[in-house]
Each structure stands twice: as C-alpha cells, then as structure tokens.
Specification:
Largest sheet: none
Shape: globular
Distance between the termini: 8 Å
Strand content: under 5%
Helix content: 55-70%
Structural class: mainly alpha
Number of helices: 4
Order of helices and strands: HHHH
C-alpha cells in the first residue's frame, strides 16, 4: 500500500472524528486538529483496527502530525 493510499484513509478517518476544516500531511494533531492526547489514543486505536497493525504506546507519544501517523502505519504494514 502506498503512502498516498494510507494518507487518504488516515485523513478520511480523522475527518469523521474531528471538526477540522482541512486536514493535510502537515496538520498537527493537537494544535491544528484540536485532538487531545486522550483522543490521539482513540484515533490510533481506530487506525490499528483499520490497517490491522499494532502501534506501541511509546511510538504513539512521538506522533505529532498527520504525516507522522502515515509513517507509523507504513512502517508496520
């Protein structure tokens, strides 16, 4: 699966869970999308189910942007 495909699916999932007007690779989860640290855990859980991967908690803490999320998923596929 290409990073573009992963990005498309990640953006689609985030769009259903946030009120953000625009979501790009550079969007920061907390600052731009208004996602709390607890919500990040919930979103990652949704992504784990979507992509059938497991993301360690220590990796989740390092995720800042949508691009980071795509990279984390791509590394585990």
């Amino acid at each position: 699966m290409s990073n573009e495909e992963i990005l498309s699916r990640v953006v689609a999932l985030f769009a259903t869970m946030t009120d953000a007007d625009e979501i790009t690779e550079e969007s920061e989860l907390m600052d731009d999308l208004g996602i709390s640290s607890m919500d990040v855990l919930f979103l990652i859980s949704g992504l784990e189910a979507e992509f059938k991967v497991k993301v360690p908690e220590k990796v989740i803490r390092q995720v800042v942007t949508v691009s980071d999320v795509v990279d984390v998923i791509a590394e585990r596929l």
